[in-house]
Amino acid sequence: MKYEDIKKNKEVLALLKKGNENLDVLGYTDHSEKHCSVVAERAALLLKKFGYPAHDIELARIAGMMHDIGNAVNRSHHAEYGAILANGILEKTDMPMEDRLIVMSAIGNHDESTGGAVDPISAAVIIADKTDVRRNRVRNKDKASFDIHDRVNYAVTEAKLKMNQERNIISLNLQVDESICTMYEYFEIFLGRMMMCRRAAEILGAKFKLTANGSKVL
Prior knowledge:
4 strands, alpha+beta, Hypothetical protein af1432
């Protein structure tokens, strides 16, 4: 089982589509196939930069691509639902049980409300997911009706994730338009996620740093 197979898997794509539709109705930002592709490739790049083997990189890609399939069931505990759904899909392939469990664990631990990094694959998926902050994930086009989540995401005009393997630093550099949301509002929503990234970086033997508008935050 390869990442390219998962990207084309009809069951995975159907679950992502339904989950994204559900979240649209509930007022959440984009959690589509595009977001999952970003997470898959970013997780893979993280592990590659820090010298992990090709096999681990491939598992991170697969977990990243599948990490939000649980939204098709319910947003609450979507990570755990996603892990169970992923097992059902992957057990029909040639993926060894050991690898399947690693992917399940990464998916099941990616949400900050119930999870946390437990190995390098889960750490990479967490960092890749939580740092995918961009204006075009906001689906509500009526700025007057933005809730705090819309404002926070829309206010980020630039987000750059940098990896310095020599210094063992992973840094997220944000530019935030404070006329759209205050820094207080931003951290009300994202501080827990950023702290999760810091703990995940430690699993990779690195430090996580966050700057906003040029000022160091973490």
